[in-house]
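Example with several molecule types.
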Amino acid sequence: MDTAKKISLVLAFSLASVLGQARVWDEHAKQLLLRSLQHAYNVNVRAIVVQYCSESGTFQQLKVEQTKTGKSRYTVIEPLRDQGVESVDDGMKAVTYLPDNKLVLIQSSTRNEFQDAKERLALAERNYKLSWENAPKIAGRKTVCVVATPKKGPMEQRRFYIDSETAYLLRSETVSKEGERSVKYDTRCVAYPDDMIDPGMEINAFGANTVKYERQVTISRAHPATSRLGFEPIVPAQLPYGFTVSACQITKSERWQAVVVRVSDGLVRGAVYQWKPEAEGDGDDDSAPDRSSMVTHGVRMLMVADIPRTARERILQAFATSGDHSMLTSDKTSNRELNRCTGLFNNCVGLRSYSYVPPTQTY
Amino acid sequence: MNCKSVQQALSAYLDQELTGSEMLRIRSHVTRCAACTAEEESLRSLKHILSNAPTAVPAVGFEARLASCLKAEYVQEKRANIKLSTLALVSMAAAALTFLALPSVQQKPIEAPKAQPLVKSDAAFGIRADQAAFSGSDPLGGGRIILATDYGHR
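Resulting structure tokens for the full complex:
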């Protein structure tokens, strides 16, 4: 082997070790992750991204336009059957247009609803061993890879490739216990233009039906809305794998009355829906990914979260077995304890409803 | 036959383009009329001068320059004609389309296709809508950026 080859090999090994070396969790990496959780980019973003669902083996390519003031527009580019699906959000109102279904969903924006980045980070530090690595460039941008290794359970390692300058998330991966790596989210190209035309809130949705969701009142444990559900909602005081209840909401609708318990382990966010099913399989949605369900005491519970199926089922089981100790129904749970658990994210228990409004053309 | 009609036919008389009887009538008048005789002599003299005039010879290259000028003028004229005809065709087509489309628009409004049901049940619909709102733009939390009818297969 000649000298040149030896030098190149040494350089290659050095580069690989520098890139792949796990670094101790420090303030710089912490701030970067915090900024990413807060969406505190302070730049305009224009990007083409792809999101994958490893469970169903599907993907979706999107065009992202996001101003530094927080307005955003997402447009589906691929696959062909989803082309034209659009979602706009100005921080107050979120509108999603599904052209094939001739449907426009208007909802209050949830962007400001979960201003919980610091609490999420604290919870993540409790449930994951965090470290960071220098990583190769993605879409021409220098990145830092934040590695979150779960301390217990079947949860996957999560790897976040964050733009080292803007804190914009460029790639997200999971690594299973068996070492299988799956890309969940990837950026094909990205630009941070100084000037950007306001993406606007207009969606040309000719002839579409509109479904309008409205946030209503804050409820407490004794709120009369819970009595209209026809069952006692279950809000466990403890969940496996470090998951915590971050909010509990009631979906009040003439068509569907349910409770939504939002849970998080700091990084992953999920929801557990509870309702009285009208028939067997009510709520089944074959094309929707990342969900598990079970029926207990006549109540159907369905969890949606990007975690392994076994973990979802275990969490659902925890809901089912904690029925007698639900924070909403148990006399043993004090209001203080309830507030401590559900107030971890400083969220209140909300009431959400939806109603159909006549077709309109433009919003 | 009077002097006016004789002088109008005098050129044809000198070129022997008239019938025999017309020739005899004009000859008879000219021999008896001094004014018409003078006119005949003047015209005959002019015809003789013109027939004996030398043929004009063009300057060198005149023919090529003339051909070039004619060609340029022809091309320019052709282009103008094409533009005019295209404009005319487009105008005619637009007028025809407007004429054809107008009655149908007035008679029958455009109907949007009816919406297909999004999912199987109200529960499934509610879950999807809720996911659309709460997944938002949080890929870091594992949520989907956007709600879609389906994901495409890889």
